[in-house]
Amino acid sequence: MKVTVAKALGTCFGVQDAIDLAMDEAYRNKLTIIGQLVHNPQVVEDLRIRGVNIVDKLDETISTANVMITAHGAPESLHETARKMGYNVIDASCPLVLRVHKAIAGFVREGFHPVVIGQASHVEVKGIIGDLQDYTIIANEDELSTLAPYKKIGIVSQTTQQIQHVKNLIAKIREVYPEMEVRFQDTVCQPTKDRQVAARELTSEVDLMIVIGGYNSSNTKKLKMVCDESGVEAFHIERASQLEPEMFDGREHVGITAGTSTPREVIEEVYLAILSMPGVIVSEASGMPPKEKYLH
Question: Does domain 13-94 have CATH number 3.40.630.30?
Answer without folding.
Answer: no
